[in-house]
Every structure is written in C-alpha cells, then in structure tokens.
Design goal:
Largest sheet: 7 strands, mixed
GO molecular function: S-methyl-5-thioribose-1-phosphate isomerase activity
Distance between the termini: 26 Å
Structural class: alpha/beta
EC number: 5.3.1.23
Catalytic activity: 5-(methylsulfanyl)-alpha-D-ribose 1-phosphate = 5-(methylsulfanyl)-D-ribulose 1-phosphate; 5-deoxy-alpha-D-ribose 1-phosphate = 5-deoxy-D-ribulose 1-phosphate
Shape: globular
Number of domains: 2
CATH class of the largest domain: Alpha Beta
Family: Belongs to the EIF-2B alpha/beta/delta subunits family. MtnA subfamily.
Number of helices: 11
Helix content: 25-40%
Number of strands: 16
Low-confidence stretches: none
Keywords: Amino-acid biosynthesis, Isomerase, Methionine biosynthesis
CATH topology of the largest domain: Rossmann fold
Order of helices and strands: EEEEHHHHHEHEHEHEEEHEHEEEEEH
Bound molecules: 5-S-methyl-1-O-phosphono-5-thio-D-ribulose
Length: 343
C-alpha cells in the first residue's frame, strides 16, 4: 500500500504505525500495529483514540492484512473483532461497513486498499468543510471553551471542533480557548493543551469543574465540542462531561455547538438512550496514569462508576456543524437526522 502520513497514523513499508496518545505530550512514541490483537489493545488503551481515527486505523489495518495475503474468512473475523473494540463512536462501524463492501468484491485486496485510503482522504476533506462552516459562526474576539480532544490527533485532517477553532483563529477571531482538562483520562489537559500550543492558538487550561464559574463571570462566548455518535433525534454522545457543559451553557445563554463529520451520524439509533456507552476501568478514576507511572489516591475497595461518554439532548444544542452544513435546532426537530446524511 502507498505510504501515508497523518498527525497520528502512518504507513511505512506496508506497516501501520500509530502515535501513542497516552505518551503525549511528554513523549512522541510511535507504536507498530502488525495485527488485529495489537490494534484492539491500542484502541482500548486509547493510544489510538477519537471517533474518526479509530475507524481509519481499523480500515487501514484490514487493508494491509488483505494485501499481505490474508484470506476472506480470517479478514471477516478480523473485521468483526475490530468492530467490537469500542462501542460508542459509530465512525468505526460506518468505516467497517464500507470495508465489508470492499471485502465482498472479487478483487478484494485492491478494493480494500483503495477504500481505506479513500476513507482517509475523505476524512481530511470532511474536516476542512466542517472548519469552513464552523468558523463562520465564531464572532471576533471570542473566548471559546472546548472539551476532550478533537484535533489532528483524533482525525486524518485538522480535526472537528479544533479544526473550527483553528480556522477561526487564522481569521483573527479567537481571543482565547478555555481547555477543559477532561477527567478521567485528561485528553484536554494532555492532548488539546499541547495541540493548541503547536497550532499557536491562545489557550488556558482549566479543571472541568471550573467551567461553571467562568460562564457565570461572562468569560465564555461559546462552547465547541466533537461527537462520537449523533442519533436520529439529534441527541449527541461525546466524552463524559460534555452534557454538564451543555446544561451550563444553556443556563448561561451561551451557544453550544457540536462539530462532526456526517460519518458520526447514526440514523438507525433513535435517540441518545439507545447509544451504547462504554464503561471503563475503575483505575482511571481511582488515580491517574502518565509518564510518571500510575498514581492511586482512592481506597482500593471503593466502588467506581466510569462511563467514557455521556449524552447531550438535542434540546441543549445550538447547532450541529457538519461537513454538509450547519443543522439548526428546528431542522433537528423536523427530523433531518432521521435520514442518512451525505457529504
Ligand atoms: C474528532 S474526535 C470527537 C470525539 O471522538 C471526541 O470528542 C471524544 O469524545 C473522544 O473520546 P476518546 O475516548 O478520547 O476516544
């Protein structure tokens, strides 16, 4: 397969490498993904993460395995194993549906390579279109708040919500980005704080619990987040903590925007309650892991609740900023998300 280079995925000599998003920003470490078990482990450990990137990494690995001579039956098994790696982000399932169609073709080896690379190129283009649409909504001098990480690390392109922040910044409209640290896995504190720095976007890190008082002080002009799945009624699953930001934004009359590619939309999922929410290990909440090793502060025997995502009801969303346009609350109420969307 031809070489490929994105911020966090690369193909060199027909091998897939992922940038370890658990090691950043202290260390830039690339990990090899020679087989399905290794990639599933990287995905579950969030070394590869972000809705679009998970789907792209799985598609690229399948294409490489096909090229290396893997037969249809083991490829089908591999596809099903990858599909189950993480349950919430529907981009994984949507990408794998397309890889399944390629696998069904006579020349499936060629078809899978072409499809995986097409998915990467499409994701790059989708990010660009989201950014163009979103930047128009940003007013000059804005202080924007974002949650989790939605940038080049999480996609093949410039990102979703962070892509919007980048284009708006290039247009001179961003005074500052408030970066939620995003407990428990700190995608904001580790990844977004780093990525915005690399992009030269003025940013200031806060603990998640500080957003409310900032809003009360009038220091947040809009909230921009990504999405892992958009249901048929417009409800959105995204990183845990997103819903509380939406409630806070609503109370303080602050616009709350969701930026995502149409590949994050799932018309078969009727509403947020039907979105499968991944539950994760207690150790992520009882302590923290990082370049310093693992540090635990909670008692060993404390019971823990650790959902990786929450659901923001459509009623709290000011606009769904997609590659195919900005969906308004009225359009969502009228059922636009009940039908498939296209680029
Ligand atoms: C462009 S990434 C959009 C979402 O995937 C992002 O906001 C998010 O929730 C990521 O969760 P993660 O658990 O880090 O994969």
């Amino acid at each position: 397969m031809q070489s490929l280079n994105t911020t966090s995925l690369k193909i060199v000599n027909n091998q897939l490498w992922i940038l370890d998003q658990q090691a950043l920003p202290q260390e830039t470490r690339w990990c090899l993904c020679p087989d399905v078990a290794t990639l599933v482990d990287h995905i579950q450990a969030l070394r590869v993460r972000g809705a679009p990137l998970i789907g792209l990494s799985a598609s690229l690995l399948l294409a490489l395995l096909a090229e290396q001579g893997m037969a249809r039956e083991p490829l089908t098994l591999a596809l099903h194993t990858l599909r189950a790696a993480r349950p919430t982000a529907v981009n994984l399932m949507n990408n794998l549906d397309r890889m399944q169609q390629a696998l069904d073709m006579t020349d499936y080896r060629r078809a899978m390579a072409d499809e995986a690379l097409r998915l990467v190129e499409e994701d790059r283009a989708l990010c660009e279109r989201i950014a163009v649409q979103g930047a128009e909504l940003v007013k000059p001098g804005s202080r924007l708040l974002t949650h989790c990480n939605t940038g080049g690390l999480a996609t093949a392109g410039i990102g979703t919500a962070i892509g919007v922040l980048l284009r708006a910044h290039q247009q001179g409209k961003v005074a500052q980005v408030w970066v939620d640290e995003t407990r428990p896995l700190l995608q904001g504190g580790r990844l977004t704080a780093w990525e915005l720095g690399e992009l030269g976007i003025p940013r200031r890190l806060i603990c998640d619990s500080m957003a409310a008082s900032l809003m009360a002080q009038g220091q947040v002009d809009a909230v921009w987040v990504g999405a892992d799945r958009i249901a048929a009624n417009g409800d959105v699953a995204n990183k845990i903590g997103t819903y509380s930001l939406a409630v806070l934004a609503h109370y303080h009359h602050i616009p709350f925007y969701v930026a995502a590619p149409h590949t994050t939309h799932d018309p078969h999922c009727p509403n947020g309650a039907a979105i499968p929410i991944e539950q994760r290990a207690a150790a992520e909440v009882t302590g923290a892991a990082g370049s310093f090793g693992h540090c635990q502060w909670a008692p060993d025997d404390v019971p823990v609740y650790n959902p990786a995502f929450d659901v923001t009801p459509a009623a709290l969303i000011s606009g769904w900023v997609l590659d195919c346009g900005v969906i308004t609350p009225q359009q969502a109420k009228d059922g636009i998300f009940q039908r498939p969307l296209s680029a």
